Amino acid sequence: MPKHKLARDWIISMNNQNLKVTRVPVIDPDGKPLMPTTPARARKWIAFGKALGKRNKLGVFYVQLTQKPSGHETQKIVAGTDRGKCFTGIAFQTKLATIALFHACLPGFYKSKNLSKKNKTLDRQSVTGKMAKRAELRRTRRGQRINRKVAFKQRNHRQKRFGNRRKKKLPPSVRSNREMELRILNEMAKLLPISEIRDEACGGNTKKNGFGISPVTVGQEWFRKQASLIAPEVVVDSLDTGKYRDRLGLVKERKDKSKQQAETHANDAIAIAATAFIQYRAFSTANTHGHEWVGECTITPAPFIVLTRPKLFRRKLYQENYSKGGILKRQGGTITPFGFRSGDYVQTSRKGEVIQGWIGGWTDTQKQKNVSVYDHNWSRIGQFDPKNVRLLQRSSKLCVSR
Question: Where are the domains of the chain?
């Protein structure tokens, strides 16, 4: 075979390999997002002092140029969101590469490991559980201040609230879920010139069927209104997601949605974002008619990031139950007497093993002084001496697992 043909084939193969390489977000010296680059080029820029490597609050690695870029031309970058009740997948896709994948564990409806199928008790670490417990304690305190020896009209009852419960507001659990999704989009919009946000229509039209069909669809309209402030928002029919996912050769996990892997929600988010680049269109000729796929979209390896929120309790006056001696101990709060705050990302060691996690509690008595370190799933790793714990990052109210 001639040498020029071998060289041509080698160049084509290298180009095909480059197409399947993940991309690194890039911003200019002023913080304006540019088109992502390849990891090899980013390493060269850092080695020659042309850029600085950084990470944002979501754990995404990016580079910031120290010199003015040669241009600000951008291509189409689409964000796809696949929303569930307890988990949400978000993907950022271009025509030639997948940039980042996120698996968000929503704080509104936590599934406790200790709850069986028969036990329907709310998980107190979820927003719904916290609101239920707060209402229970409020009713208890309200009943304690009522003097039942006097006439009913003279008791210390609260005034009527009339019709102020008819406001069209989101439940706290649904609002916290949607705000977590919007935070991911806002943080990534600082690194990527997002041209479009594609959201899956899940569960029907609330305007037609009424408000409050399911916890997923309640905040759907509010989310789209807020997302449209970041980039133009497009609704994708949920019935088309599987069709595009099969076309791209992606796999879906159907049995256990709680698995922290791309197959549960992130792959569906890729398929939703890819609808901007490929379409299943109808065609007709003189002899036949039907449907065909038009366009192209390349799926590449990309960072898969799991995001959770630290399961912290707000400061309470005291615990519900008395301890020995009739003492009510303090409960909740985020400030420790050792310079750390609950949710801080720290590093420590145990038997020569380096451990990184998040501060979640502390003990300060005459016998022992320690802090509790948790992983991103908020399972306690252990208790450690504050002197052997080093602060890595202040709390961003997110636990990131890359």
Answer: 3-65, 78-110+169-308, 311-402
